[in-house]
Amino acid sequence: MGVDFVLLDSDDRLIGNAVSYRDKRTNGVMNEICSQIGDEELYAKTGIQFMDFNTICQLKKLPEEVKLQAKSFLMIPDYLNYLLTGKKVNEYTNATTTQLYNVEANKWDEELIEFVGLKKRYFMKHFLRYQKSAS
């Protein structure tokens, strides 16, 4: 669930179903991404291990018509939160697992998001961060 997501349209409806990373549709996509971006640059930006099921691979592999309909990106836990609260936010630790979050700049990486064919504005600007309770 740490790499899986949903896309919502302009009416905040799901575009298709959420798809689990546990299939073969993204086999080899990470190699393609690294050859185009550069593995050192990608790792320097995100600090995430290169795996074919990473969110960046799943998004890169989506059909263009799906990407054109998208207006919001939510990780699965964020989507559940949205259904319960009506608030669209990205939880920080989940965002950092996408391989689209620049850990040095501490924000979504616009170049990587555009590389997969989406717009940065579809990604929530405000992060839900959980704080330790005082004991």
Main attributes of the structure:
135 residues; transferase; FGGY_N; kinase activity; two-stranded parallel sheet; alpha+beta; 7 helices
Structural class: alpha+beta
Compute the number of strand runs.
6
What is the CATH architecture assignment? 2-Layer Sandwich
Strand content: 5-15%
CATH hierarchy class name: Alpha Beta
Question: What is the helical fraction, as a range of percent?
Answer: 25-40%
CATH superfamily placement: ATPase, nucleotide binding domain
Query: Quick check: average pLDDT?
Result: 89
Strand count, sense and closure of the main sheet? 2 strands, antiparallel
Provide the succession of SSEs. Answer: EHHHHEHEHEEHE
Distance between the termini: 30 Å
Q: Tell me the radius of gyration.
A: 15 Å
CATH topology: Nucleotidyltransferase, domain 5
Instruction: Give the helix tally.
Output: 7
Give the count of structural domains: 1
Shape: globular
Low-confidence parts, pLDDT < 50 over ≥5 residues? none
The order of strands across the largest sheet is 1-2
GO molecular function: kinase activity
Pfam families: FGGY_N
Keywords: Kinase, Transferase
InterPro entries: ATPase_NBD, FGGY_Carb_Kinase, FGGY_N
